[in-house]
Automatic annotation (TrEMBL):
Pfam families: ApeP-like. This is ABC transporter permease. It comes from the Bacteria. InterPro entries: ApeP-like_dehydratase, HotDog_dom_sf. The lineage of its organism: Bacteria, Pseudomonadati, Bacteroidota, Flavobacteriia, Flavobacteriales. It comes from Flavobacterium rhizosphaerae.
Length: 159
């Protein structure tokens, strides 16, 4: 059955750009998420989630793997004062097999391929797949950049 974690604690995204509802499973190497495609989704065209919506769902899923290292303390408790900035730095390869219609609940899984941590940012390459039942919608590898947002005071003392 798994767990159900609100992904908003791991991402800066909010509606209408939030493309993941919950995290079903997560560890330091992988993550599984769920997303229900509703009629008010901004990435819809003719009743289907378009390619950019699938890619955004995958990227948000992938970022949770790295984000947890910033938002969880040493005891595994969530820190609520952390703000993250993240973006896709490149798409290594992506295959869109089909577009899911409104009302579909897609499951997205991701696994870490490589990761580089610096003082306040991480770059990583992650393999991801989105599907519903036996139907595969997306499969690919993306590179992400994730950074802890610094406030003005921290930036001025950081040099």
């Amino acid at each position: 059955m798994g767990i159900s974690i609100d992904i908003q604690n791991y991402l800066p995204h909010r509606a209408p750009m939030l493309m993941v509802n919950t995290i079903k499973k997560i560890d330091t190497q992988s993550v599984e998420t769920v997303f229900e495609i509703k009629e008010d989704n901004i990435f819809l065209q003719d009743g289907f989630l378009v390619e950019s919506g699938l890619v955004e769902n995958a990227a948000q899923t992938c970022s949770a793997i790295v984000a947890q290292s910033y938002v969880l303390d040493e005891n595994g408790n969530e820190k609520y004062d952390i703000e993250l900035i993240g973006f896709i730095s490149s798409i290594r390869k992506i295959s869109i097999h089909a577009l899911p219609p409104v009302g579909t609940t897609i499951n997205t899984s991701a696994s870490l391929i490589s990761r580089f941590d610096a003082d306040n940012y991480t770059t990583c390459m992650i393999h991801c797949r989105s599907f519903c039942g036996d139907e595969m919608y997306l499969e690919g590898e993306i590179n992400l950049f994730i950074q802890v947002k610094q406030d003005e005071k921290e930036r001025s003392t950081a040099g």
